[in-house]
Amino acid sequence: MKRLALAVAASLAAIAGSAPAQETPPVSGYQFLLPETQALQDDDFANPGMLWVELGGKLWDEPAGNGTSCQNCHGAPEAMRGVGTRYPQWSQTEGRVISLEQQVNQCRAERQQADPFGYSSQELVSLSALVMHQSRGLPMSVATDGPAASAYRRGKAYYETRRGQLNLACSNCHVDQVGSRLRGEPISQGQVNGFPIYRQLWQDMGSVGRMIAWCNDAVRAEPLAEGSQMAVELELYLRSLGNGLAIETPAVRR
Ligand code: HEC
Ligand code: HEC
């Protein structure tokens, strides 16, 4: 991480006064991958992310707390097709925008009367991957109006605000520098249509929250805590940037 931050400082010192952002159509991070990484994502037998989807499938059928399982109330996971396209979404019960992970934990706590999973736990990432995977190929379509409008505005403001020792906003890289190389790595639009993703760098599956924290760290900013309201609202904004992009879960990234 230290090496990345130094490389970032060196290569981005020059873009402090870069051109204003232009409106470009959303492009999946998939398009920025090497062909061999694309091939890994495309092959369900080779895609490491499918292991988390499978684990999610096991948890789906497992009774917890009061003896109920996800399956008891929701039927087969396939019944979740389309659900993942809408999250984060406004929750009437909570009176705020919640992520898919938080919705799963809400069922776990209230419907199953079991301890909620840790936000970055393997269990929650797996269930989230399972649910998102059911929507593979469907266009993302989060709502940014109505009760979600103020969360959307806060997410957008966060995205555009410079922070950290390198004084960079998300948009300075993922809007202004798309296609530029950072230590040989092309910078993508930072789309989230493949999440949770299997990241080769992590050798692990990660949520949008984990990726946000990683990018915060890259500019030496205080990482947003995964599952914090600000992180969920930033995720809403990120998903809205990709509205219309096909969901790829589980995507493979470098
Ligand atoms: C006792 C029944 C019950 C169990 C068990 C249960 N749920 Fe739910 N779940 C519901 C109900 C009812 C709703 C819709 C009402 C709401 O939004 O709270 C719901 C909503 C959801 C949604 C949002 C659906 C949408 O259209 O937005 C997801 C995702 C979900 N559940 C996942 C899970 C997972 C994963 C598990 C197992 C860890 C689980 N649920 C366990 C009853 C249950
Ligand atoms: C210094 C440049 C830089 C900044 C600033 C930055 N990122 Fe990133 N980000 C990267 C790099 C490099 C990657 C990995 C390659 C890629 O997909 O662009 C990445 C990847 C991502 C991805 C994964 C994309 C995919 O297809 O899986 C997301 C999401 C993301 N960033 C979000 C953010 C958010 C949100 C912020 C602001 C908090 C941010 N980034 C700030 C450099 C940056």
TrEMBL record:
| Reactions listed under catalytic activity | S-sulfanyl-L-cysteinyl-[SoxY protein] + thiosulfate + 2 Fe(III)-[cytochrome c] = S-(2-sulfodisulfanyl)-L-cysteinyl-[SoxY protein] + 2 Fe(II)-[cytochrome c] + 2 H(+); L-cysteinyl-[SoxY protein] + thiosulfate + 2 Fe(III)-[cytochrome c] = S-sulfosulfanyl-L-cysteinyl-[SoxY protein] + 2 Fe(II)-[cytochrome c] + 2 H(+)
- Subcellular location field: Periplasm
**What superkingdom heads the lineage?**
Bacteria
Q: Which GO terms describe its molecular function?
A: electron transfer activity; heme binding; metal ion binding; oxidoreductase activity, acting on a sulfur group of donors, cytochrome as acceptor; transferase activity
Q: Which cofactor does it need?
A: heme
Sections of the chain in a coiled coil: none
Cofactor binding notes: Binds 2 heme groups per subunit.
Locate the residues binding heme c 1. Answer: 70, 73-74, 107
Could you say which EC number(s) this protein's record lists? 2.8.5.2
Give the UniProt record's GO annotations in the biological process aspect. sulfur oxidation
Q: Which NCBIfam families match?
A: thiosulf_SoxA
- Describe the function of this protein: C-type diheme cytochrome, which is part of the SoxAX cytochrome complex involved in sulfur oxidation. The SoxAX complex catalyzes the formation of a heterodisulfide bond between the conserved cysteine residue on a sulfur carrier SoxYZ complex subunit SoxY and thiosulfate or other inorganic sulfur substrates. This leads to the liberation of two electrons, which may be transferred from the SoxAX complex to another cytochrome c that then channels them into the respiratory electron transport chain. Some electrons may be used for reductive CO(2) fixation.
Q: How does it assemble?
A: Heterodimer of SoxA and SoxX.
Q: What is this protein called?
A: SoxAX cytochrome complex subunit A
The organism named in the record is: Pseudaminobacter soli
Q: Which gene encodes it?
A: soxA
